[in-house]
Hints:
Elements: H1 11-41, H2 45-70, H3 74-103, H4 106-129, H5 138-150, H6 156-160, H7 165-186, H8 190-195
Helix pairs in contact: 1-2, 2-3, 3-4, 5-7
Amino acid sequence: MTTNNVKRYSIKEEIANSITHGLGIVFSIVALTILLVYSILNKSTISIVGFSIYGVCSILLYVSSTLYHSFQQEKVKSIFRVFDHSSIFLFIAGTYTPVTLIAMRGYWRVGILVAIWCIAIIGILFKVFTYNKFEKYKFVSLSLYILMGWLVVIAIKPMAQMVPMGFLLWLLAGGVAYTIGTIFYAIKKYPITMLFGIYSY
């Protein structure tokens, strides 16, 4: 495996990244527990399924990122970098899942879920097969991330009829923040991209 594509960080940066992303694992487990307890108390099977998928994807995201920043040996780091990048696709799809299952109905629910998970799978395969050319094809990855983030727009009308306006505005605000983070990552403003949830490459 070619390893010269691995971005190098200082030891201090790697320690900070490992700690913060490790805390993300803890917070994800806590959040998953709370959501599952809430769903079980409300006897909502669909919520249990949706939140379980979200929680697992969130945990995988932070585990992958923590491992990527914890190991400094280049070959090992290159392997975990693929997991780190791929887990972003899982996380976005996982975030869509409970929202779509709970808030949408009929063919919109099925269509959005199929579309978002198909894009996620395509993105993961793309990362696997371009593991030594991440920088060269970065624009493709960023485009897929943004496409996934804004896919919900095509279903905005039926969703507006099913969820409170406050929830819808919060969802759109998240999309805006995510897009801004992607732009900052593209121009190499790493600390700001971390703020908006675009994980370090």
